[in-house]
Amino acid sequence: MIGTPPATHHAIGLQALSLGKDVLTEKPFALTTQQGDELVRAANETGKTLAVVHNFQFSRAFRRLRADLESGRLGEPRAFEAHQWSSPARRLPAWYEELPGGLFYDESPHLLYLLRALAGGDLRLAAAHAAVPGKGSRTPSMVTAFFGTPSAVPARMTLNFSAPLSEWHVAVLGSRAAGIADIFRNVYLRLPSDGLHETAGVVRTSLAATARHWLGQIRPGLEFVAGRAMYGNVEVMRRFIAACGSGSSAAGISKEDGLAVLRLQHAILDAAGIRPDA
After folding, report:
1. Is the pLDDT of residue 9 over 80?
2. Which of 52, 80, 82, 205 could be joined to 155 by an S-S link, Cβ 3.0–4.6 Å?
3. pTM value?
4. How far is C-alpha 4 from the geometric centre of its chain's CA atoms?
5. What's the number of domains the chain is made of?
6. What is the 3-state secondary structure (H, E, C) of the chain?
7. Residues with Cβ < 8 Å from 113, sequence gap 6 or more?
8. Which has the closest alpha carbon to 240: 40, 21, 5, 4?
9. Is 20 in the same domain as 154?
10. Residues 98, 145: one domain?
11. What residues make up the domain containing 184?
């Protein structure tokens, strides 16, 4: 398993594959699409498993969101949304400003693979915009990207890197209800339509959101205190080990998934005019 800074993933991955090792690497997959292609080609040539840690899609909150989407409890899906607020005061790796697009490059893979999981396939970038970063920083203040999906349901991703607090949420807006996964807290909320947005509906939404938010934090909170908050990593390891033993692709974390997310990252950088070497 490669858990070193992103700039080293490519070289270490190639070396490990050449030595006949199966490889599970942290995201981001690589620093360029060429590096990503080389890693995939090396895995194909050696016949070894290459996978990437796309863990939050296996968290309890996100699994509940997908279950409600697939069962129809949310109604007809009308939009997929992913947003991140990130405070520059929180704990951050020392190397993030060395990446293309700075912190965007390190953290956007999470939102991209979560949107891909909801959309049921690859995303197609439609447009992207970025606020110019401050002097001496590669990290833009804000990035917004719009995507087309195989189901024709529109998708949007917004990242703000100058917020006063840190929050990550992924949502499905359906015709009957909204499903919202709080990624950091591992809490899921399903809020019914408020109809005409009259007083009764607004109060019902407030009560449901408040009650479900606090009730939803009991189990994740106990797991965190006990040191058992794994955020989907147990399932990542299970799928990786199973793929190593069978020679099959590790669904959701495969080399193809890693490469697809990598290509989306660079498509956004290009479309938004973010210079990787700025």
Report:
1. yes
2. 80
3. 0.94
4. 19
5. 2
6. CECCCHHHHHHHHHHHHHCCCCEEECCCCCCCHHHHHHHHHHHHHHCCCEEECCCHHHCHHHHHHHHHHHHCCCCCEEEEEEEEECCCCCCCCCCHHHCCCCHHHHHHHHHHHHHHHHHCCCCEEEEEEECCCCCCCCCCCEEEEEEECCCCCCEEEEEECCCCCCEEEEEEEECCEEEEEECCCCEEEEEECCCCCCHHHHHHHHHHHHHHHHHHCHHHHHHHHCCCCCCCHHHHHHHHHHHHHHCCCCCCCEHHHHHHHHHHHHHHHHHHCCCCCC
7. 54, 56, 57, 252, 257, 261
8. 21
9. no
10. yes
11. 57-225
Residue 128 CA to its chain's centroid (Å): 17
Whether residue 260 lies inside any domain: the answer is no
pLDDT tens track for 198-257? 888 899 899 989 998 998 888 888 888 888 889 999 999 999 999 998 888 899 999 999
pLDDT at residue 139 is higher than 70: yes
Determine contact, residues 115/79, Cβ cutoff 8 Å: no
In a domain, 261, yes or no: no
Whether residue 278 lies inside any domain: the answer is: no
How far is Cα 23 from Cα 47, in angstroms, rounded to an integer?
11
User: How far is CA 256 from its chain centroid?
Assistant: 15
Same domain? 160 vs 112:
yes
Please indicate, yes or no, if residue 112 is contained in any of the structural domains. Answer: yes
Any idea what the CATH number is for the domain that residue 19 is in?
A: 3.40.50.720
Give me 185's structure tokens. Answer: 């807290």
The answer on pLDDT for 134 being more than 80 is no
* pLDDT for residue 167 is more than 70: yes
Task: Tell me: do 154 and 197 sit in the same domain.
Answer: yes
Please report the pLDDT score of residue 83 as a whole number. 96
Question: How far is 162 from 164, CA to CA, in rounded Å?
Answer: 7
Buried b (16+ CB within 10 A) or exposed e, 76-109: ebeebbbbbbbeeeeebeeebbebbbbbbbbbbb
